[in-house]
TrEMBL record:
PANTHER family: PTS-DEPENDENT DIHYDROXYACETONE KINASE OPERON REGULATORY PROTEIN-RELATED, TRANSCRIPTIONAL REGULATORY PROTEIN
Keyword presence, DNA-binding: yes
Name of the protein this chain belongs to: Sigma 54-interacting response regulator
Swiss-Prot/TrEMBL keywords: ATP-binding, DNA-binding, Nucleotide-binding, Phosphoprotein, Transcription, Transcription regulation
Record-annotated Response regulatory domain positions: 4-118
Stored CDD domains: AAA (cd00009), REC_DC-like (cd17534)
Modified residues (4-aspartylphosphate): 54
Domain of life per record: Bacteria
Source organism: Chitinophaga filiformis
Domain Sigma-54 factor interaction: 335-564
């Protein structure tokens, strides 16, 4: 069936030209609108599949206003604009378009963009249907499971989390009974770790006196309707209320309330709370509404199937054990951290992994993009096929084509053997294109071809080869800026950006620094065969306040260095200041005695020798060995090392593992 396209363009000649081109390529043009108002009318009447939108239009409505309407009606749209300035691009981006073409464009570009838009649209619709069907099934199963009310709430929380994010979820009857508080909920404390919060737990953690509870509850009556609050206003926090208590204790910034009506007419509410601003949208409410029948059925069970065994679940009922009910995914086992920004990124990772969708991972250098790419692969049906990484920045422009797509024997001087490229090597698996922003423009077209046609053309080959690969790309650049500068193809950007995942820089998730530091410290001490005696308070304090421009990789390197320089008896110390420009003081105490001087001298000498041994990978003798570099006899160096407790073997292993 022909796809119906609506043209929204106020320049008659351009619009007419577009119509002719579209018809020639097999599309049906369902109308031309010169203003937003006309377009609204045509939308109702013609129900097009795709709309081509000029941004500036006659009349009050702009193309961007219209786009919001199209999105809510699930109609795909592509912007056609002469304007590519950054502000407009950003505004347009916020409407999540299916494509963007800058005028003047070639017919061919328009056709490619329409293809991409349709692919993205179908993919999202199909995925949505599949996802919702599965969700419904899972909720129904949870309702019929032999479990307590509390366990059922946890089950529902886990099912909904990838679709409706939260840091804390509670549920209970409304209006509130001020004499008896029965809300139950879960606080998220890790990727798949939750802490049960009932009345007792709430009182303990919020330091609220039992006697004060009725006052708090009396001020906490909620609307009977669905509510979204994306920024809690201060005035809501003037009187003591449940919201004030939760916002203060858990740093809640936004929330969503979803009520369902039970068979007996009572209203049972779900409260989703987030530590981020602007998290909740009408799409979340629309999804909950579609799931309403199964959520209502589950709520009946939650309300009336609580059994006495419930209280045995957590006999202490206390907040002493923060481990909650833990089922962590092994695919994330090397990912440390529980900051809500990291968890939000991991939620997206788990959500997209099973599908074949391309993923674009964004984030500063060293934030863990490669690790997330690997998790996507491991969580996908492709996990037993290869995961091939290509660092687009590290391969010289002249070699990149053959590296990616391979070559035939004799294809160019030096091609003495036929060679498979990375895409062919990864057949059935995943190709991770790291630093995709560095890829030359002519290679970008070829990647687009892999995405669209699923085929590659080895250099010197005479026919294209079909490949079955999933592409996961990453960049620390702002690709939109690169598009605006003409360094990155807009069509490739749109095709890759179907599912973006952004990783937060370490300075925005400081609460994870301590856990990461201990994880790396233990790892390196184990690797260097040294006992781990903790980390000094001053080192930890410095690390907690530092900005970490190199993110987790830099933190990892700092801990590695501290572990190398550690004597195996004391806690790890910071041996250089974190900017790496000058050494940190060797000891925190003042130098007052001759012994202090000797100790500092000994430390300095030790550090210097260690730095040389690291360079030579522990080699003492021969040309460019440590003794030659230090300009002393090898035997003298060996006895100094013995005196200073430096072990050659430490360097053999450490150098091998030092990361770039
Ligand atoms: N959450 C985490 N927990 C533990 N280790 C991590 C975490 N995130 C990253 N790392 C470690 O930090 C280092 C850098 O991570 P990775 O290489 O994935 O970052 P990247 O964003 O891909 O960096 P670049 O942009 O420079 O390629 C790796 O050694 C990785 O194992």
């Amino acid at each position: 069936m022909k796809k119906k396209v609506l043209i929204v363009e106020d320049e008659f000649i351009v619009a007419n030209n577009l119509r002719q081109v579209l018809q020639r390529f097999g599309y049906e043009v369902s109308g031309i609108a010169a203003s937003g108002e006309e377009a609204e009318e045509l939308l109702q009447r013609e129900k097009p599949d795709i709309a081509l939108l000029d941004i500036r239009l006659q009349g009050k409505l702009s193309g961007i206003d219209l786009a919001r309407k199209l999105r809510s009606e699930h109609i795909a749209f592509i912007y056609l604009s002469a304007n590519s300035n950054r502000k407009i691009l950003e505004e347009a981006r916020a409407t999540e378009p299916y494509g963007f073409l800058v005028k003047p464009f070639r017919k061919k570009d328009l056709m490619v963009m329409l293809d991409i838009a349709w692919y993205r649209h179908m993919h999202s619709l199909e995925a949505r249907e599949r996802r919702e069907h599965l969700l419904q099934q899972q909720i129904e199963e949870a309702a019929h499971e032999d479990a307590t009310g509390r366990q059922k709430i946890l089950k529902l929380a886990r099912i909904l989390l990838p679709h409706i994010p939260f840091d804390f979820i509670t549920s209970g009857l409304r209006p509130l009974n001020t004499a008896q508080f029965d809300d139950k909920g879960y606080l998220r404390i890790g990727f798949d770790e939750y802490q049960f919060i009932g009345t007792e737990e709430l009182l303990t953690i919020t330091n609220l006196k039992k006697a004060a509870l009725p006052v708090v509850l009396a001020n906490s009556q909620t609307d009977i309707n669905t509510v979204i609050c994306n920024e809690i206003q201060d005035e809501k926090l003037h009187v003591p209320s449940l919201l004030k208590t939760l916002a203060g204790t858990f740093n809640i910034r936004s929330y969503l309330v979803f009520p369902v009506t039970l068979n007996n007419g009572l209203s049972f509410h779900y409260f989703f709370y987030s530590r981020r601003l602007d998290v909740y949208t009408d799409n979340h409410i629309a999804l909950l509404n579609r799931l309403r029948p199964s959520i209502t059925a589950l709520s009946e069970r939650i309300m009336y199937e609580d059994d006495p065994a419930d209280s045995l679940l957590n006999p202490a009922g206390a907040f002493t054990n923060l481990q909650g009910e833990t089922v962590n995914r092994p695919e994330f086992r090397n990912i440390i951290g529980s900051h809500h920004l990291l968890l939000a990124a991991l939620d997206l990772t788990a959500q997209v992994a099973p599908h074949n969708t391309s993923v674009l991972i964004l984030g500063e250098s060293g934030t863990g993009k490669e690790q997330v790419a690997q998790s996507i692969h491991l969580l996908s049906p492709r996990k037993n096929a290869p995961f091939i990484k290509v660092n687009c920045a590290a391969i010289p422009a002249t070699l990149i084509e053959s590296e990616l797509f391979g070559h035939e024997k004799g294809a160019f001087t030096g091609a003495t053997e036929k060679r498979k490229g990375k895409f062919e090597q990864a057949d059935g698996g995943t190709v991770f294109l790291d630093e995709i922003g560095e890829l030359p423009l002519e290679m970008q077209v070829k990647i687009l071809r892999v995405l669209q046609e699923k085929e590659i053309e080895p250099i010197g080959g005479n026919a294209p080869l079909q490949v079955n690969v999933r592409i996961v790309a990453a960049t620390n650049r702002n690709l939109e800026e690169e598009v605006a500068r003409g360094n990155f193809r807009l069509d490739l950007y749109y095709r890759l950006n179907v599912f973006p995942i952004t990783l937060p820089p370490l300075r925005e998730r400081r609460s994870d620094i301590e856990g990461l530091a201990v994880y790396f410290a233990e790892k390196f001490c184990r690797e260097f065969n040294k006992p781990f005696n903790g980390i000094t308070a001053s080192m930890m304090e410095t690390m907690l306040t530092y900005d970490w421009p190199g993110n987790i990789r830099q933190l990892e390197n700092v801990l590695e260095q501290s572990a190398i320089l550690n004597d195996g008896r004391s806690p790890l110390e910071l041996r250089r200041n974190l900017t790496g420009t000058s050494p940190a003081p060797l000891a925190t105490t003042d130098i007052k005695t001759l012994d202090d001087v000797k100790r500092v001298q000994r430390e300095t000498e030790r550090e210097y020798i260690i730095s040389i041994l690291r360079k030579t990978a522990g080699r003492i003798r021969g040309a460019n060995g440590a003794a030659e570099l230090l300009n002393i006899k090898p035997t003298t160096l060996e006895s100094k090392m013995e005196k200073l407790d430096i072990k050659k073997n430490d360097f053999l292993s450490s150098t091998k593992d030092i990361r770039g």
